[in-house]
Amino acid sequence: MTERPCTPAELQAVVLSRELQDGELGAAGASAAIPMAAMMLARLTHAPDLQIAGEMFVNPRPKQLWNSMLDDRALGACEAAETFLELFGHSHRGLDFFFHNGMQVDAYGNINLHHIGGTIDKPKMRGPGAANISYAATSRRFYICTGNHSSRTLVPRVDFITSPGYLDGPDSFRAAGLTGGPRLCVTPLAVMDFHPDTLRMRLKSVHPWSSPEEVAANTGFDLLTENDTATTALPSDRELSLLRETVDPKGLLREA
Q1: Pairing relation of β-strands 182-186 and 190-194?
Q2: Which residues, including other chains, have CB under 8 Å from residue 28's CB and lie 6 or more apart?
Q3: CB 224 within 8 A of CB 203
C-alpha cells in the first residue's frame, strides 16, 4: 500500500476541480462537500469567474467546508440567496455541469437514490430520492462522485433510475432525446470515464494507493480498460496548499 500524501476525498476534489472551466455555471446538491471544494479550488487556481448556482445560494464564498450546503453557515458571503422555485429554474434552463452521488451507480452511469431491492412500494432499503432530477438531463455534463468504491455501489444495473446516465447505451440514450450525460465517475480508488462509442464506463486512472486489480475486485461489473492504466496525478503543492489552508482549513476532507 503506497503512503497517502493526501486523503482520497482531497484527491477527488482536486480531480474534479481540474475539469471545471472559467466562466462556466455549475451546481451541486445539498450533501456535497467534495464538489463544493472542487468548485472553490477551481476558482482559486484557473477559473476565477466560475459561477456557482448552489443549494439556495448564488456564488457563495464560505470560510470553510460544511457537510451540508443547506447549512446557513455554508453560505459565507454570497451574492444572493434563492428559493427552491429559482433553484429548479436553473435546472430546467440547464447548467454547464452538475455533480451527482448515488446509492447505486451502474456501468452506464445511471444513478439510484430511491430504493434497493424489493419494489418501490416495499423496498429492502429506501433512499432519500431526489428533489429534482432535471440536472442530469439538462446539464451539458455531470460528474459522479462517490464516497466509497465497492461492488454494492458500482453495480451491473441499478434497481431504480433516479437520474439517468447513458441508460442502456447509445441507442437508448438517443431515443430518449437526452444530451450531455456523465463525464467522469470519481471514487476513492480511481477515476472512470465513458467510452465514446459504447458509452460504457471504463477505467481512466487508478489512484496511487490502489491498483487495477483492487479496482476490479471492488466493481460489480467488468470495467473497460486500456492496455496501460494511468496513475491519477496527485495534487500539486499549490493545489494542496490552497485546499487545506483556504478551502478546507478545518480539515473536513482530511477526516473523510
Answers
A1: antiparallel
A2: 35, 36, 39, 54, 55, 69, 98, 99
A3: yes
By the 8 A CB rule, do 199 and 170 touch?
Answer: yes
What does the pLDDT profile of the chain (256 residues) look like in tens digits?
A: 456 799 999 999 999 999 999 999 998 877 789 999 999 999 999 999 999 876 667 888 888 888 877 777 766 677 877 777 777 776 777 789 999 999 999 999 999 998 999 887 888 888 777 766 777 888 899 999 999 999 999 999 999 999 999 999 999 999 999 999 999 999 999 999 999 999 999 999 999 999 999 999 999 999 999 878 999 999 999 999 999 999 999 999 998 6
Cell of 226: 486500456
Residue 84, CB half-sphere, CA atoms under 13 Å: how many? Answer: 5
Q: Which of these, 246, 248, 192, lies nearest to 219 by C-alpha position?
A: 192
| pTM of the predicted model over 0.85 | yes
4: three-class secondary structure by DSSP: coil
Q: Judge contact between 184 and 97, C-beta under 8 A.
A: no
Task: Report how far apart the first and last C-alpha atoms of the chain are (Å, whole number).
Answer: 18
Q: Distance (Å, rounded) from C-alpha 65 to C-alpha 20?
A: 19
Q: 200-206: list long-range contacts, CB under 8 Å, 24+ apart.
A: 200/107, 200/108, 200/166, 200/169, 200/224, 201/107, 201/108, 201/109, 202/226, 203/229, 204/230, 205/229, 205/230, 205/231, 205/232, 205/233, 206/230, 206/231, 206/232
Residue with cell 457537510: 67
